[in-house]
Amino acid sequence: MIPYRIIQRKRDGEELRAGEIAEFFRGYADGRLPDYQMAAFLMAVYFRGLSPAERAELVETMLRSGAVVDLSDLPGTKVDKHSTGGVGDKASLVLAPLVASLGVPVPMMSGRGLGHTGGTLDKLESIPGFRTDLTLSEFRRQLERLGCALIGQTDEIAPLDRRLYALRDVTGTVESIPLIAASIMSKKLAEGIDALILDVKRGSGAFLPELDRALELARTMIGIGDAYGKEVVALVTAMDRPLGYAVGNALEMEEAILTLRGEGPEDLRELTLALAGEMLALGGVAGSPGEGRAMAAAALDDGRALERMREIVEAQGGNPAVLDDPAILPQAPVRRVVEAARSGTVVEVEARSIGHAAVELGAGRRALGTAIDPAVGFHITVKPGDIVEAGEAVATVYARTPEDAERGREALVAAIRIGEGPAAPLPLVSHRVTRAGVEAWEGDAAEGGRGA
Amino acid sequence: MIPYRIIQRKRDGEELRAGEIAEFFRGYADGRLPDYQMAAFLMAVYFRGLSPAERAELVETMLRSGAVVDLSDLPGTKVDKHSTGGVGDKASLVLAPLVASLGVPVPMMSGRGLGHTGGTLDKLESIPGFRTDLTLSEFRRQLERLGCALIGQTDEIAPLDRRLYALRDVTGTVESIPLIAASIMSKKLAEGIDALILDVKRGSGAFLPELDRALELARTMIGIGDAYGKEVVALVTAMDRPLGYAVGNALEMEEAILTLRGEGPEDLRELTLALAGEMLALGGVAGSPGEGRAMAAAALDDGRALERMREIVEAQGGNPAVLDDPAILPQAPVRRVVEAARSGTVVEVEARSIGHAAVELGAGRRALGTAIDPAVGFHITVKPGDIVEAGEAVATVYARTPEDAERGREALVAAIRIGEGPAAPLPLVSHRVTRAGVEAWEGDAAEGGRGA
Lengths: 452, 452
Fold this sequence. Notes:
Two copies of one chain form a homodimer. Chain A is α+β, with helices and mostly antiparallel strands. Chain A has three domains: 3-49, Transferase, Pyrimidine Nucleoside Phosphorylase, Chain A, domain 3; 79-326 and 427-440, Nucleoside phosphorylase/phosphoribosyltransferase catalytic domain (Pyrimidine Nucleoside Phosphorylase, Chain A, domain 2, 3-Layer(aba) Sandwich); 331-419, Pyrimidine nucleoside phosphorylase-like, C-terminal domain (Aldehyde Oxidoreductase, domain 3). Chain A has helices at residues 3-11, 20-29, 35-48, 52-63, 91-101, 120-124, 136-146, 159-170, 177-190, 211-227, 249-260, 266-282, 289-301, 304-315, 351-361, 402-415, 443-447, and strands spanning 79-83, 106-110, 148-152, 195-202, 231-238, 246-247, 334-339, 344-349, 377-380, 387-388, 393-399, 416-419, 429-434, 437-440. The N and C termini of chain A lie far apart (61 Å).
């Protein structure tokens, strides 16, 4: 194989021959192929895509670059969840203990914050003592005992994906559907799941804002799962505004705890129940997603999910008192209330710029490997469509310094647009995608009513 | 500047703002920006192109990355020639002493072989002792004394271009018109020329085989020259078959010497005269290209060009006896005659595969920095349209080993296609491109008849 010829042929739109993708990427994995040739290839893939055969070869190569966990000896249908990433998206923190408390094992390997979006690992680590770096054997034992473990992608899992992801992040090659799909699915297939629910975001705060691209990504991932005999269902959900109120690691952890206690924001609860319903159906515990949703609502309301989270936190070295007293979480020294500059309708709460502003405060990383500040972020209590009065508090900035707080305030004033006329937010969940195709999401109305 | 945002915006087809290209490329020049980000950017440019403003900024950045030679104190209009590269193209070796012998200074900085094409420097260095690494002050003194110096791109000239070129070569990003044009023109503008003749190749052996792409490249380079007040004229010429008979460094040097003595192949002589006519007109020595062509033909036929080459070879440390006895050049130990397998018409002498086969023999480089074998190559005495008899000698392979010779023979048998029906070779020179536009090339018929 001559690497520059492979790059040229992909650039020119040729389909590569069987084995060529595998050889090219294995060469990168073992250090024979340099970053710059891979970067050029990835940009060519951005423009030319991958054929189904090429994509399958890439998934297999990434999957086989590390260990493939075998959980088949553990009882139950193992179901994980993946979100394509958003601002304020802490659903996994509620969902994992909730679904596990109902008997479906959730072997969850999560990521860190990326670009303008937060990461489940960073949020979990805001709990004092919480360890996300379990070994694979600790992971397996906890999964057996509690039905859930919340860890990071270990070094053993798809190491090639990790290196490729870091390269894509700095070379403008993230937003490629086949590369995104292969990255997600290779990790998920390596962690030993039987089925997967995908939360595919759309709207301005999503990596792929347009609906047609979100649907294409969903279909691509479902196709990959199918090739490995894993059932994958995707919900297309709104990321034109943040999910819930909180943006920032400890703030989001606190909001997840409130939601586990039945006191969280409506949209976060609703999305979590929709995803839980699907996972319980995939796991064979519920006869339908609607039945699963009702079961999940009950487990949130009667405290079973909260108790399971307490056990998980304790098992992973965190202070379980946080479930009763979220003030144990790191607190920002400077708080600044943001007031509505005028009366009117909240027309937009623009997710992407809020995500970027949170990174500026220190809630995310500007460069790989840098530390984050768990305490900082935003609490935005208005949603598109809300009516506000001039001077009314619409948000709070949590910051390290007064200067940061002022910058954060300015960013929120720009992002929370107040005007006349109606707001047109995207529906929280709009589509459900399965092997059978795309259907409009009927929501709780069709699936058995709002729980509790 | 955030590099990955610049890459993304180019990828998405946005025009970059004034200063952004300069900052991005200067970052690469001084080592702050890594190869992998540049590789991704170059691939995005391959797909999205550069606007005229972006291209101008790139040329200026590359030009200013090193020294800009000022030859304005030397008398005469300095005219150089550049070929976009081909197989068997040794025209520069004849052209430079020829034009200099008629009073137009030729400050020629040439390159090495690249991919399947040969390089003037490698050919010159087949002369025992010949130095192409003159310092800029030696270059200037020789130019003053002999009107011509034949050197390589020194470290001082457009160092950024050299690094970019090496990166493009291994990342499949060579075949981009704005990148090719900026690379060529930044080097030529840095060497202190007043005017430039371009030999833009087309056909299977050219980097850009299609006519429309060759014309676009010509127009782009003429536009860049115009912005710097340099007159640039381009001839579009045939590279569907090798130029002349010889392919390989010493073999081509020998053929250039024969042509300087009036004994070379017809096509090499004709192309050289066409280019010389343009250069003499650009240099103000001839009133028109046709008049220049006639002057050049006379200088070839009466030995003036040969004598000037003798002085140049001697001045640059080479053995001038080579002009009388080309057998002084390195000789390959194994020679193998290639015979026509059947009778018929030579339909094709496919340049690109012949170029690749010459690299395989050792005439070119498979990787940067490796040594070449000056003695090896091909001598192909048939041209498309020739009638041959089965068993007739059509070529000779010059090789290091019998095995190499056999592989070379097989490559030539495949590349020299003998069949029925007429051959349809491209015209040797088909178009002439100037600031005023593109015109069909009228050739010597319209320009004053064949010299001598």
